[in-house]
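Fill in residues.
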């Protein structure tokens, strides 16, 4: 049995696909053009901090500190909540694993945690959880 799709159904299908992708892009682009700077450190440690710069461009999150380890920009998604604009992203490094970002933006401030993991076949997997608190770069 053969299923035939007429031209009218094809048009509707393509319109739905275009609308879906444009809606997703608009949602993700809410943070585009923003750069946040501030301290970052291991979640389990005290005042051992370093400065971080996180930017959002073209639907991707980029970390200056993580770039030094080969991590590239990764696509981010956003969701509005009563707490602010929540975001999540995953950045990857060809040699050093992946980092999963989760956080919230409230006005000109950002608060996030990011978890670095690297799978190893010869030893236990590496895992670090860090925090980041920043303000919009002027």
């Amino acid at each position: 049995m053969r299923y035939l799709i007429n031209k009218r159904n094809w048009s509707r299908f393509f319109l739905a696909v275009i609308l879906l992708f444009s809606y997703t892009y608009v949602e993700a682009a809410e943070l585009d053009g923003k750069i946040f700077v501030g301290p970052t450190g291991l979640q389990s440690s005290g005042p051992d901090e370093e400065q971080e710069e996180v930017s959002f461009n073209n639907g991707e999150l980029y970390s200056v500190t993580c770039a030094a380890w080969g991590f590239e920009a990764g696509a981010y998604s956003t969701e509005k909540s009563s707490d602010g604009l929540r975001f999540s992203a995953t950045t990857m490094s060809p040699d050093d694993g992946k980092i999963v970002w989760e956080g919230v933006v409230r006005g000109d401030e950002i608060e996030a945690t990011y978890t670095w993991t690297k799978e190893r076949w010869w030893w236990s997997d590496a895992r670090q959880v860090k925090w980041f608190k920043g303000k919009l770069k002027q």
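The beta strands are 34-42, 49-57, 60-63, 74-81, 84-93, 97-106, 109-118, 126-136.
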